[in-house]
UniProtKB/TrEMBL annotation:
Bilayer topology: Peripheral membrane protein
TM region(s), chain numbering: none
The Flagellar motor switch protein FliN-like C-terminal domain, residue ranges: 304-373
Keyword line: Cell membrane, Cell projection, Chemotaxis, Cilium, Flagellar rotation, Flagellum, Membrane
Cell membrane among keywords: yes
UniProt family annotation: Belongs to the FliN/MopA/SpaO family.
Organism listed in the record: Tepidimicrobium xylanilyticum
Entry protein name: Flagellar motor switch protein FliN/FliY
GO molecular function, one term: cytoskeletal motor activity
Amino acid sequence: MDKDILSQEEIDLLLKGDSNLEGNLDENFEDDGVITDIERDAIGEIGNISMGTAATTLSTLLNRKVTITTPKVEVTTAGELSNEYPIPFVAVDVKYKEGFEGSNILIIHVDDVKIITDIMMGKEEIDTSRELTEMDLSAISEVMNQMMGSSATSLSEIFSKKIDIEPPKSYEITFSEGRKKLDVLKTSDPIIKVSFRMVVKDLIDSEIMQLIPLEFGQGMVENLMGTPQREVIDSIDRREETKLVEEISSKKMDMATSNGIKQKTARIDKMSENKDEEHVIIKKPEFETFDGSDDVSYNESIDLIGDIPVELTVELGKAIKKISEILEYGPGTVIELDKLVGEPLEIYANGKFIAKGEVVVIDDNFGVRITDIQNRYGH
């Protein structure tokens, strides 16, 4: 009997062995020297610009102030992530279909996804104790589609080429499960982790992560700089490295202000030309004089514009509903309008209110009898 019972030491060894098997050879990974300081700073700046634009989009969707802090760039592995984050999270897989080849993953807390979904559904009370549903995953996929779409637009300006993404896919998953399902996590190669702190006023204050394959991240930097980084490091000193980092940081500002700089330069050149002139002649402007004339009116026929079509619209009534209410509609649903029975309907010509009327039936067709014309004085 005793031989069939495992000791605590044997159990610990089995658990340890399973962990090592899952982490493979990458769980004790050291990131020193995997990427250069230039690559680290460049990736951080790219992430800062793209996520800044994404934060603006999220703020518009939620109608709340959203702040995303300056990113922190690290190099890790799927094995280390499995050990560091054992609990489930929501992974949003974003694949590029134009401009770049590859994909990256955004990691979001499950409760944050529930909060974002409840806000978009117009719920007055946020419930994070409920189970995560397909509705939550669908909502966060659409949110990320909007956010990363605007981010791709910003990257298009930085890299001077069109960049576009496929519709993102969301999963509730752990890192251990993700190593079998998500391309970015299937490898034991190093992964670039870009961490941001996301704050949504009074609701969310947590960390989101962007996981980028090492080759993909280095490729972006080389694309931006125009020269493979390993060759640059061999031929420049530290001062030149710092200069390149400053050029990357100022690239966004240069694009936004290039027109203003050109205008200022033109004005400076103009001032320099004027400075060389010895004499400047100043005189009052001369204007042509017109004799007074009687007002002339033309009573031409309106036939010239008589054939121009005008769209007449009759408004039966209005109703304002929340998205959550509209989603519950189906065949047979009755929508209550703001008009009372027998109350005059409003008639518009090309969107301008011109008259009031009442509904009539003419040979089985609806019609409107005009009861009151709105004149130009509003009576």
